[in-house]
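User: Before I run my own analysis I want an independent prediction to cross-check against. Here's the chain; please return only the structure tokens and, at the end, one sentence I can use as a sanity check.
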Amino acid sequence: MPVPKSSVETSPRKLLRDVVLEKMLAAIQDGTLQAGERLNDDELVQWLGVSRTPIREAIAKLVDYGLVEMEANRYTRVATPDPKQFDEVLEVYYGIGELAVRLAVPKLDDAGRKRALAIIETLGAQVAAEDHAAFRTLDSLLLFMVEQTENELLKKVSESLITRTQFVMLAAPEQMYWDAGAGLDTFAATVRNGDGEAAAAVLRGMGGALAAHMAELRAKA
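Assistant: Structure tokens:
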């Protein structure tokens, strides 16, 4: 791994291990740390400018997320996302999305509803332009809805899920089914009406459309 100049900055609001975790996550997502690449303690210490302890703590969290594979006395390496992982994440992502909007949409006040509709509008424009920034906007929408549920367990699960989702998308970024975005106008209407059940049904349909699209692509491969 090329060793860039350290850019880790400590913060009184964050533990050092969390700062290191964020840096390593970004490096995996932007390709600085590539799938299958072995992680060497000495190189990571030089790159990040910290001791081994926060690095090992961050790696343990990355193992929990499924982004790093480790086998004692053999290797520690960046995992390689595959189609099966993509399918598993997709199922959980839309499942949690359904639950979140079912709980959150009826609770939205005027400000919350306005914020949700603004995110949906941005997402719609990105989908129409086939802009891959839509992936992150969809994540933002999910996290916003989860936040509105005020369910702490759901928040915790969703944060790790988003990290996992962003990782497995590296395996198939070109396979986004843009036509699934056709349901966004209907979804926005359910948010305006405060209808959580209808919002969940629309999201379920969008997830099903993407799953069917992926199955069709693989059948042709």
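Sanity check: The longest strand covers residues 68-71.
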